[in-house]
Write a sequence for this structure.
């Protein structure tokens, strides 16, 4: 298939039908009407806004999450915004059907209406970046900017989003660190089309800075401060938010996810295929990987504290790396780590090491030497020095338990206790994690070239 044929076939699958668009339009009108009624009934001063891909008409067929923001005047206190926002959310959630309270920077309501998830989020009714008070306030400005600048290239955004999903580089969440939907929209607006964005993958990396609103000219001091901060943090890409010069839209984008986009762009332009958009699921076996490599996988299973992913996962990551370092100090070679909400994987060279260590002591004719002689069981002389044999834990489970007991490893403060109570599994993972284990051991998660020989 040539590139035009592939794109045409993908569009047939991802562009919502007219029937689907009518359903979404009616759904949003009904939700907005109910929101206005609810605000009126509670006699509160707030306005409902739709944000996100549904509001911008950049959503993929079958992907219908509704983001409804309840915007309060700027003179509303933050505590009042949280309280009244939750009040509106609960009342509206009741009208829509069922709801639950979720937590991010501040509480919000997650409801369901006609089978579609609806997030009801309180925010400030901002007109400029200078008004922004909370992390979610910019969303209204983002939606407005995209609607004003997209100029009918909605399907180009859809193609790019589906491509990013297919290559496993979509989503700015902390546990993904890929391209956000808003970043995808900005890149299409900046470069003009899906194919142009792919062609510019290398250019982007070398240019480093994308500034659609020309903040470097308009707000040079603030924009340069943003650039300096992001360069110091070694971010692969700096996209100065068109609605706020203080923010890098690509701040969460990792080098690994950009790398997947970088190599996939080269490969797709050279040999286009539907596989980039709709990859075939591989039912690979992590045990085969262990046999192929001759390594071992250690699985730590734990019950995580009740924290949102954005708070929990960085702490699990820190702990996983801390444990890897502690095992290295104990003489095990750690080839890699991976983690999730309730598990840590460690790939190691072996599960057992010698049960003794040889330690060198002081000169045998000194007072330190005599103390060393008294303290140790097996002692001998090499030249002028005393040497001794020290018993140590050899089996990796015992070593980990000792590390847990001493607690002398870098760890996230909210997860350390849970992780030190982990179940420790050797060369075995529960069925629910077997695919994760395969992706980890094979490095398929970030693979850009696979040797199948």
């Amino acid at each position: 298939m040539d590139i035009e044929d592939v794109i045409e076939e993908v569009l047939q699958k991802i562009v919502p039908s007219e029937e689907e668009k009518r359903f979404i339009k009616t759904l949003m009108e009904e939700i907005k009407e109910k929101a206005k009624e609810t605000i009126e009934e509670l006699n509160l001063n707030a306005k409902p806004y739709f944000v996100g891909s549904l509001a911008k008409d950049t959503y993929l067929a079958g992907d219908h999450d509704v983001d409804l923001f309840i915007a309060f005047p700027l003179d509303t206190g933050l505590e009042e915004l949280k309280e009244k926002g939750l009040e509106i959310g609960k009342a509206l959630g009741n009208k829509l059907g069922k709801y639950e309270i979720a937590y991010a920077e501040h509480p919000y309501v997650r409801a369901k209406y006609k089978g579609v998830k609806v997030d009801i989020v309180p925010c400030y009714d901002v007109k400029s970046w200078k008004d922004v008070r909370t992390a979610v306030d910019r969303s209204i400005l983002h939606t407005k900017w995209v609607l004003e600048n997209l100029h009918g290239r909605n399907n180009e955004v859809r193609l790019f989003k589906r491509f990013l999903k297919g290559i496993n580089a979509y989503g700015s969440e902390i546990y993904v660190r890929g391209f956000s939907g808003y970043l995808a929209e900005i890149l299409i607006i900046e470069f003009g089309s899906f194919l142009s964005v792919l062609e510019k993958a290398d250019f982007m990396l070398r240019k480093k800075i994308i500034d659609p609103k020309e903040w470097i000219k308009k707000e040079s001091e603030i924009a340069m401060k943003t650039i300096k901060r992001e360069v110091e943090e070694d971010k692969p890409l700096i996209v100065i938010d068109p609605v706020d010069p203080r923010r890098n839209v690509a701040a969460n984008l990792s080098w690994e996810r950009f790398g997947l986009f970088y190599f996939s762009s080269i490969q797709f332009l050279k040999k286009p295929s539907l596989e980039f958009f709709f990859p075939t699921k591989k039912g690979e076996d992590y045990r085969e990987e262990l046999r192929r490599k001759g390594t071992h996988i250690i699985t730590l299973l734990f019950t995580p504290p009740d924290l949102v992913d954005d708070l929990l996962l960085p702490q699990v990551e820190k702990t996983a790396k801390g444990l890897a370092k502690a095992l290295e100090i104990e003489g095990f070679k750690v080839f890699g780590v991976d983690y999730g909400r309730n598990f840590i994987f460690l790939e190691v060279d072996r599960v057992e090491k010698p049960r003794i260590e040889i330690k060198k002591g002081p000169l045998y004719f000194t007072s330190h030497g005599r103390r060393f002689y008294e303290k140790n069981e097996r002692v001998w002389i090499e030249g002028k020095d005393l040497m001794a044999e020290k018993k140590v834990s050899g089996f990796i489970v015992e070593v980990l338990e000792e590390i847990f007991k001493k607690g002398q490893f870098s760890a996230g403060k909210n997860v350390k206790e849970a992780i030190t109570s982990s179940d420790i599994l050797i060369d075995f993972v529960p069925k629910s994690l077997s695919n994760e284990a395969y992706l980890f051991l094979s490095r398929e998660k970030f693979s850009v070239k696979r040797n199948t020989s």
Summary: Residues 289 and 442 are 6 Å apart (CA to CA).
